[in-house]
Amino acid sequence: MRILFYLVISLQMYSCFENVTYEKPENLIPKDKMVEILSEFIIINSAKGSNKKVIENQIIDPVNFVFNKYSIDKEQFESSNSYYSRNVEIYSSIYDSVKFKLEERKKKIESEIIKRKKITDSIRNKDRKRLERNKFISKKIFPGNKIDTTFQKTRELK
Predict the structure, then answer these.
(1) pTM as predicted
(2) In the chain, what is the greatest distance between 2 CA atoms, to the nearest angstrom?
(3) Can you say whether residue 24 is alpha, beta or left, with left for phi > 0 and alpha for psi between -120 and 50 degrees?
């Protein structure tokens, strides 16, 4: 009985380690396009987690939006994704590319935020200077003849 038990276990273990090669689907999505699609899905999923109402207002169905953008359908994506996921090295390289792409996009957005912040800071500085300049303007109305006289400093601050 023991021998039969070990034989069954060995056969199950052997079947798990069988080297299976998977065939490419006919409509396989190329790696570079797959990187683009996966990065879009990651961005949409993260946006859904933080601003679900904004995403729903802008895009009715985000998944179909991505499929239409890249001219693919759900079945094509699923078959390509399952093919790539079975080949660990290829799938790993795809996700490394996705990670690199998202990091580059993050750097670009952060630099844009810094530029906008500099612009708003410069606008605030201009407003502050204008307020300082307005300190030197004084209005006086003489009660007798209701003449408005405004005294301004002749040289403006820059």
Answers:
(1) 0.60
(2) 122
(3) beta
